[in-house]
Amino acid sequence: MATRTATPDNEPFDFNLDAVEAEVDLTPWRVHWAGKRWMFAHMQSLDVWTLVEAAEGGDITAMTGIFRAALGDQAWAEFRKIKLPQYKMKALFDGYRRHCGLEPGESEASAS
After folding, report:
1. pLDDT, average across residues 30-42
2. Contact present, 28 and 42 (Cβ < 8 Å)
3. pLDDT confidence of 105, banded at 50, 70, 90?
4. Other C-beta atoms within 10 Å of 103: how many?
5. Is pLDDT of 55 > 80?
6. CB of 43 within 8 A of CB of 100?
7. Cα–Cα distance, 28 to 24 (Å, whole number)
8. What b/e sequence results for 63-84 when a residue is b if at least 16 CB atoms lie within 10 Å of its CB, and e otherwise?
9. Is the pLDDT at 85 greater than 50, yes or no?
10. Helices (H), the chain
11. Pick from 42, 10, 61, 53: which is nearest to 108 by CA?
12. What pLDDT score does 111 carry?
């Protein structure tokens, strides 16, 4: 088996992830709810590791994890203080997915 040696960071590499840019406009999504304006960061700008952890808890946990990440912890804490009927949560998530370019039933990890 060949032994690998450490290559300095400034040496040639096979892929430069630092150079990758978003292919979509990452404009936040603005929502009016309970007399207040809420700013949800674009889904594709969210930290994937946070989303993966939330997804491990099932659909509802994934959905709320996405919203928590999109709003940020402080705004999420305020948002959570307001009663939210399930039918509004579904409409909110569907609208957010449309804003982010995902059709209902299509996940962020989808190939399309």
Report:
1. 98
2. yes
3. low
4. 10
5. yes
6. yes
7. 12
8. bbbbbbbbbeeebbeebeeeee
9. yes
10. 48-55, 59-71, 73-80, 86-99
11. 42
12. 41
